[in-house]
Amino acid sequence: MTAARAPGPSTPGRTEQDDRSGPNRTRGVSSSEAAVLGRIEAFRRRRPRLKDDVVTLAHGAGGKASAALLDAVFLEGLGRPEGPLRDAAVLDLAPGERLAFTTDSFVVSPRRFPGGSVGHLAVHGTVNDLAVMGAVPRWLSLAVVIEEGLSVAELKEIVADVAEAADGAGVAVVTGDTKVVGAGAADGIYLTTAGVGTVAPGVDLAAESVRPGDVVLLSGTMGDHGIAVMLARGDLDLEVELCSDTAPVTPLVRALLEAAPGTRWCRDPTRGGVATVCNELARDRQLAVVLDEAALPVRPAVAGACELLGLDPLYVANEGKVLAVVPPEEADAALAAVRAEPGGAEAALIGEIRAEPEGVVVLRTAFGSTRIVDMLVGDPLPRIC
Questions:
Q1: Spatial separation of the C-alpha atoms in residues 204 and 206, rounded to whole Å
Q2: Interval 84-99: pLDDT, tens
Q3: 98, 109, 311, 356: which sits with the fewest CB atoms below 10 Å from its CB?
């Protein structure tokens, strides 16, 4: 053991106790310890950097890799909220407004197709479900399930598409979540969005309001989305220029309601197409929906592809159309208003509501005969939305 050297007049004595209680004392630690802790804290405050080219299981573990993915892809692509991230968004409402709330999941192959991508669909599909309820879409949540091995570059492109679609639809993505699953446990990426919109007093679009004599309006051509996705898969040797119709229908519905305030009911005919939605209306209201084949708007490219594939355009999905029932005295004004909007130029009055036969959809053919249009059986075009 060596003796401790007494401090001399020119060498101030420094002991651990002196250092912790002197002017350099920082929250009970020495100045050297404080410097180290300061450097650690500064490092921890740095934004996480994403260095990986593909998504790995570590990105779904909730640690630094998760934070890096969230920061570099989702916050960078969708916008950074003010203040810290929280577990829920708090939304302010005007007095007297009601809420519409919906959710949907999206998985499509291929993930990118002429006219859009799964990112666009994830926004438009949920926004449109709100709009046809007469709501003004306001906020979205976004949940993403990512398969291990998906490239970060593609993920960024999809998130950019979500941001673009949300901006075009006038909605904000205010909350979300990500999960990563092992290779082979998913098909690249699955997106789920939930949407909240506000409904003005007096707006109530419901099947219960539909009555015999009402007119059926469709805002544009049928089947564009389903056939565009089918052709994008490359399984058919067809050279056809056809784009998906994926788009927000909020402007179409707004114009419709302004021109025809007595509008009874609205839907967006996605999976299962116009025929399925009409069957749901006939079933729910126990009235007949009578469609006029000659009035149905179909692009020649869609009609040709459907003929080759043995499909009926009535059953093919749409992602930017509105099917509405309006009073007969407002039908012409409704049609003119919808045609004046982007995406509504080919709108048509395609049928009427009758009392009988109850719960049935009937098609008047070009030959003057009629046939029953039944509910879709099976899935002729899987993985389209």
A1: 6
A2: 665 556 667 778 788 9
A3: 356
